[in-house]
From TrEMBL:
Keyword tRNA processing: no
Name the UniProt record assigns to this protein: L-fucose isomerase
L-fucose isomerase N-terminal-1 domain boundaries: 14-181
Family designation: Belongs to the L-fucose isomerase family.
Gene that encodes the chain: fucI
Manganese listed as a keyword: yes
Domain L-fucose isomerase N-terminal-2: 182-361
GO MF, one example: L-fucose isomerase activity
Length: 600
């Protein structure tokens, strides 16, 4: 098992603040409740610390208020402690009636939830309702957590339904808090007119609390030519690549194939590009030792995008190797947290990848939503029928070799293919991922400067979630979600379909879960309603967590196939209509506006 890493970005990781709220009446009432109330806080802290980790692998830290909170003075002291301790998410717990608006968390930027104990001896649920009403009236949305079954006053356990909501909220809240104050680094400009690479700083500032940093691609040329990278690490990386990255067949016509000497130079260039883009994102103290103090700082980028096409790739090797390796959970230095790096500087797909990564701590797959194959079309070109999960049709997810190698599906959980957090991946699984991938000389029809694209076939049987952020003029950002599965196709069907596009790029065959209505009426409708050419693919069915996250940020979800019972949004949403309605979500988000208003 890999060691947990240090946090590579500037600033400390946000903690979860636990607020034990109590009936402030002295002389018997408060005193009788102190133990139970503080016990709830400690139980929640233990649950979260045991079950949640930061993206660098370390357990999530919780901070409990010094005392129970019976009034505004103690609420203020707790807020001061939380600010000092770096709390980014707050959870209030209580078994009893308390003074609603006097005890609530008033910080508008901190995601907040309240667990009101379901017991008959004291009215914890009454406080929950009163406090949520205060939150809603003040425009400070909070998530209400109320157990389905009545508990006895002395019961110190957390019911399973309460646990699920606490964990779902905490994952989403931490993702929001981790993004705040970080950067998106745009390396280059707009790639081939792709809308997602028209980077919108207002979106990042107002909705995510992030800033946008811009670096021209010529900076890579400068750093390569002036050797502004760690040459010792470069030699180590190049040796690792030669040993572990198998070169596949050259798909170019013989007249356009590069010489071995040219290909060797291109390998050297793409390895240097990888080091340099990583250094641009998070800095590198080694550069300071070499005298490059400014370059050593980096841009504190939690996500980035590389334009590549076409101004770079018409002359220099493409970014496929760099993107695939940085997005993976490992490289020549061993296992580590993936970097989020979008192909073609598609900042909106980078955000979807970032959401998935922060909710799961796993590597993300960047893909084109390339083709819908109907059962009839497959039978026409292959003479074979699709069966099993694929029987209603499939969506071909494929991009120019930039997908994380974790996407091979060569890792496993309980014997089934999976994508795991880096600290759970074994050396044997790393080798399997590398062995399942081949690196092919780039098709020079597309990439005149050469380079290498990774090719692999994702194993079927993985539960995955496809997501995407789009921006619509007059509306703002919207989120699309499609839960489904990767599928295996018979070898001959896969061969015929894959050869019709680019067989030297990574392929994932995806089947969404259908609901029989709307965008999920059939597989064709999912493809037909997808709002852009790219999607992020995350391991697991995390649609509910994405909906919770989007509600905190006030980004409406325009398309999803998540069952109603898994949807968890702030209680204010209930005032705008049915909880599972798309219209309700739009009205609530529009009414509240983006989390950070007009920006940080």
């Amino acid at each position: 098992m890999a060691a947990q890493g240090d946090y590579r970005l500037i600033g400390s990781l946000p903690k979860i603040g636990i607020r034990p709220v109590i009936d402030g009446r002295r002389g018997g009432v408060r005193e009788s409740l102190e133990g139970q109330t503080m016990g709830m806080a400690k139980a929640v802290a233990e649950l979260l610390t045991k079950n949640l980790r930061y993206p660098n692998g370390k357990p999530v830290e919780c901070v409990i208020a010094d005392t129970t909170i019976g009034g505004v003075a103690e609420a203020a002291r707790t807020a001061e402690k939380f600010a000092r301790e770096g709390v980014g998410v707050s959870i209030t717990v209580t078994p009893c009636w308390c003074y609603g608006s006097e005890t609530i968390d008033m910080d508008p930027y901190i995601p907040k939830a309240i667990w009101g104990f379901n017991g008959t001896e004291r009215p914890g649920a009454v406080y929950l309702a009163a406090a949520l009403a205060a939150h809603n009236q003040k425009g400070l949305p909070a998530f209400g957590i109320y157990g389905r079954d009545v508990q006895d006053a002395g019961d110190t356990t957390i019911p399973e339904d309460v646990k699920q909501k606490l964990l779902q909220f905490a994952r989403a809240g931490l993702a929001v808090a981790i993004m705040r104050g970080k950067s998106y680094l745009a390396i280059g400009g707009v790639s081939m007119g792709i809308a997602g690479s028209i980077v919108d700083p207002d979106f990042f500032e107002s909705y995510l609390g992030m800033r946008v940093e811009y670096v021209d691609m010529s900076e890579l040329v400068r750093r390569i030519e002036e050797k502004i990278y760690d040459e010792e690490e470069y030699e180590k990386a190049l040796a690792w690549v030669k040993q572990n990255c198998k070169e596949g067949r050259d798909p170019n016509p013989p007249a356009r194939q590069a010489s071995k000497e040219r290909k060797d130079r291109e390998w050297e260039t793409v390895v240097k590009m990888t080091l340099i883009i990583r250094d641009l994102m998070v800095g590198n103290p080694k550069l300071a030792e070499l005298g490059y103090l400014e370059e050593a700082e980096g841009h504190n980028a939690i996500a980035a995008g590389f334009q590549g096409q076409r101004q770079w790739t018409d002359h220099f090797p493409n970014g496929d190797f760099t993107e695939a390796i940085l997005n993976s959970s490992f490289d020549w230095n061993g296992l580590r947290e993936p970097f989020i790096l979008a192909t073609e500087n598609d900042s909106l797909n980078a955000v979807a990848m970032l959401f998935g990564h922060l909710l799961t701590n796993t590597a993300q797959v960047f893909a084109d939503v390339r083709t819908y194959w109907s059962p009839e079309a497959v039978e026409r070109v292959t003479g074979r029928k699709l069966t099993g999960l694929a029987s209603n049709g499939i969506i071909h997810l494929i991009n120019s070799g930039s997908a994380a190698l974790d996407g091979t599906g060569q890792q496993s959980i309980d014997g089934q293919p999976a994508i795991k957090p880096f600290w759970e991946i074994t050396p044997e699984e790393v080798k399997k991922c590398l062995d399942a991938a081949t690196w092919h000389p780039a098709i020079r029809e597309y990439f005149r400067g050469g380079g290498f694209s990774v090719s692999f076939l994702t194993k079927g049987g993985m539960p995955v979630t496809m997501s995407r952020i789009n921006i619509v003029k007059g509306l703002g950002p919207v989120l699309q979600i499609a839960e489904g599965y990767t599928v295996d196709l018979p070898e001959d069907i896969h061969y015929f379909l894959n050869e019709r596009t680019n067989p030297t790029w990574p392929t994932t065959w995806f089947v969404p879960i259908l609901t029989g209505k709307g965008p999920f009426k059939d597989v064709y409708s999912v493809m037909n309603n997808w709002g852009a050419n790219h999607a992020a693919v995350s391991y697991g069915h995390i649609g509910a967590e994405l909906i919770t996250l989007a509600s905190i940020l006030r980004i409406p979800v325009c398309m999803h196939n998540v069952p109603e019972e898994r949807i968890f949004r702030p209680s204010a949403w209930g005032a705008f209509g049915p909880v599972d309605s798309v219209d309700t979500d739009y009205r609530a988000c529009q009414n509240l506006g983006p989390l950070y208003g007009r920006g940080m």
